Amino acid sequence: VKTIGVLTSGGDAPGMNAAIRAVVRTGIAKGLNVKGIMRGYAGLLKEEIVDMDSRSVSDIIQRGGTILYTARCAEFRTEEGQKLGAEICRKHGIDGIVVIGGDGSFNGACKLANLGINTIGLPGTIDQDIACTDYTIGFDTAINTAMEAIDKVRDTSTSHERCSIIEVMGRSAGYIALWCGVANGAENILLPEYYDGDEQALINQIIENRKKGKKHHLIINAEGVGHSASMAKRIEAATGIETRATILGHMQRGGSPTCLDRYYASMMGARAVDLLCEGASNRVVALRDGKFVDYDINEALAMKKTISPYEYEVSKMLSR
Ligand code: F6P
């Protein structure tokens, strides 16, 4: 491997810049040329490819977002798009690519690998929903950002003795909701993995808690459950308690990455380059039981993970 490329794809996540920096600087330290591919696979197809040096990744480790920009690309899901992508890599002398993104991005990486371009995936998403790894780049920052925001909503909710439903991101996974629900001391945590839609039970609990003297009722609702605004209206009508819905939205994806995200993203970025130098392809770097490991992308994509029933039970017990 002489020349490698790096791209970010799908939703951005804090810590992606730390990963890009690690790929560039590890690559250069190992005598490789490193190219930045702008705007994910969309930029690859448009040949938006720039030379990177150590200085092009200066002053970015503390910044949220991704300096390479990101995109979701429909054309790259087609066979023609993938073939064109591989041809463009060859034209630019790129024989290895590090793809930072989620499962969708790894699918694309797998296709490029089948077409002879060595690829390594790095798990980058705030959702923590990549089955092969215990950790994804951006999750730690996102839960801390959401936690701080929820604390603020809680202050006003308590002052007004209201019920608050706060919706957090996570696509169809409930990791952000679970972690914030526990860390923010929520009365209820609605997870797509477990919520059975029994709104009457929720309403009964709100009424009971009020009788017990609780001043507010905080519900953390995962995006995968959704419908926070209409739920708030129904709860208010049924309980007589003023209820507000707050959807935290994209603020959860921004901001300066935490130390943990910067550190793990740096280690994973270096590991990706090591793997390319060893001639590996179609692998994804993961953190399992505290160790950095790597998996075949097809195997990784076939894996399933879910929130442990024990952790869910504890979260319910602590909210009483
Ligand atoms: O995957 C990250 C994520 O923020 C999800 O939590 C959310 O469902 C989705 O991306 C939102 O995507 P977009 O930025 O395209 O609205």
SSE blueprint:
Blueprint: E1 3-8, H1 16-29, E2 33-37, H2 40-45, E3 49-52, H3 79-91, E4 96-101, H4 103-114, E5 118-123, H5 139-159, E6 163-168, H6 175-183, E7 188-190, H7 199-212, E8 217-222, H8 228-239, E9 243-247, H9 259-277, E10 283-288, E11 291-296, H10 297-302, H11 309-318
Parallel strand pairs: 1-2, 1-4, 4-5, 5-10, 6-8, 6-9, 7-8
Antiparallel strand pairs: 2-3, 10-11
Helix pairs in contact: 1-9, 5-6, 7-8
Bound molecules: 6-O-phosphono-beta-D-fructofuranose (F6P).
Family: Belongs to the phosphofructokinase type A (PFKA) family. ATP-dependent PFK group I subfamily. Prokaryotic clade 'B1' sub-subfamily.
Enzyme class: transferase
Cofactor: Mg(2+)
What are the salient characteristics of this protein?
7-stranded mixed beta sheet, 11 helices, 42% helix, binds 6-O-phosphono-beta-D-fructofuranose
Architecture overview:
With 320 residues, the protein is of the alpha/beta class. Helices cover 42% and strands 18% of the residues. It contains eleven helices and eleven strands. It has helices at 16-29, 40-45, 79-91, 103-114, 139-159, 175-183, 199-212, 228-239, 259-277, 297-302, 309-318; strands spanning 3-8, 33-37, 49-52, 96-101, 118-123, 163-168, 188-190, 217-222, 243-247, 283-288, 291-296. A seven-stranded mixed beta sheet has the order 3-2-1-4-5-10-11, sandwiched between helices. A four-stranded parallel beta sheet has the order 7-8-6-9, with helices on both faces. The longest helix has 21 residues, at 139-159. The radius of gyration is 22 Å and the shape is elongated. The mean pLDDT is 97. Bound molecules: 6-O-phosphono-beta-D-fructofuranose. 6-O-phosphono-beta-D-fructofuranose binds at residues 11, 125-127, 169-171, 223, 253.
